[in-house]
Amino acid sequence: MASLKISVGDTIPKGDFGTIPFTEELADHSVCGIPTTLSTDSWKGKKVVLFSVPGAFTPTCHINHLPPYLAKYNEFKAKNVDVIAVIAANDPFVMSGWGRVEGLTDKIITLSDPNAAWSGSLGLSIDLSERGFGVRTARYAMIIDDLVVKYAEVEPGPGVTVSSADAVLAKL
């Protein structure tokens, strides 16, 4: 299990993530898009819900974790959330492909945290090398308001509880 090195009230450290912003050209899956960098600096003055999955297209992440965030998108917006983002150690192309398969369009941003570098700096990485997956982001969720952590929880074991869409909505 990961061990948080960040607490409610802390300012998040600067992070730069690979992402492929959704465009209509991506909708038919005939193009891959061009990766860009999204910095946490762009979250200044915004309310952000960031949730992390160990891997795109993996069973729990693909079936139980991401879909409820999309299904409850309007509930998050009603609570004045400016940005919803999912982060994983997968590369930007995989994250973009996963987002397109899930139908995220521009509602949820997919972020690549290579080797879980940013997440690891917060104590939120897990080593899954014994399963052939390498170092991944742990399963966690944060509410960040103007770069300050308002909620941060890491899953205590398998499954989706404290990082679920419902758990995060309850804390907004």
Based on DSSP secondary structure assignment, what is the total number of beta strands? 9
Nearest-integer average pLDDT: 91
Helix content: 10-25%
Termini separation comes to 25 Å
Number of helices: 5
Radius of gyration from CA coordinates: 15 Å
Task: Give the SSE order as H and E letters.
Answer: EEEHHEHEHEEEEH
Strand content: 25-35%
Strand neighbour order, sheet with most strands? 5-4-3-8-9
Shape from CA axes? globular
| Largest sheet composition | 5 strands, mixed
Unreliable stretches covering 5 or more consecutive residues: none
Structural class: alpha/beta
Can you walk me through this structure?
This protein has helices at residues 59-71, 73-78, 92-102, 117-121, 165-171; strands at residues 16-19, 36-39, 47-52, 83-88, 109-112, 125-127, 135-137, 140-145, 148-154. The strands form three sheets. Strands 5-4-3-8-9 form a five-stranded mixed beta sheet. A two-stranded antiparallel sheet has the order 1-2. It has a two-stranded antiparallel sheet with strand order 6-7. The mean pLDDT is 91. The protein has 172 residues and is an alpha/beta fold.
